[in-house]
Amino acid sequence: MAIETISGTINRMAELATRVAGAIDEQSSSAREIGRNAGQAARGTSAISESLDAIARAASSSRTDVDEVVAASRHLSEQATKLRAEVERFLQGVRSAA
After folding, report:
1. Whole-angstrom Cα distance, residue 78 to residue 84?
2. CA distances (Å), origin 10, targets 14, 18, 24, 80, 81
3. What's the pTM?
4. What is the pLDDT of residues 82-91, one digit of tens each?
5. How far apart (Å, rounded) are the C-alpha atoms in residues 88 and 91?
């Protein structure tokens, strides 16, 4: 009877060892999947970062363009003021001569 008890215990231990091995295999598979997903997330984050950098560069370039348009507009306004004054002087000269 002792041999049967020992044999039963060995069989239960073998069954438990098989279950543990299966669980370890599932955990390894899950860990590999998590690793793949983390790698994909990192690549996605890198792509987003590059896109944000491109947007920042474009915004900076646009800001420079806006500054140039504002400067040109101010210069044009100054020229219009000078032209208006010259036209006024001309018209006063014409009125005075008449």
Report:
1. 10
2. 6, 12, 21, 103, 105
3. 0.50
4. 999 999 999 9
5. 5
Cα separation of 39 and 42, whole Å? 5
Which run of H or of E encompasses 1?
A: none
Cα–Cα dist 70/75, whole Å: 9
Question: What's the per-residue H, E or C state across 28-60?
Answer: HHHHHHHHHHHHHHHHHHHHHHHHHHHHHHHHH
Dihedral of CA 34/36/40/43: which sign?
A: positive
Q: Rounded distance, CA 90 to CA 82, Å?
A: 12
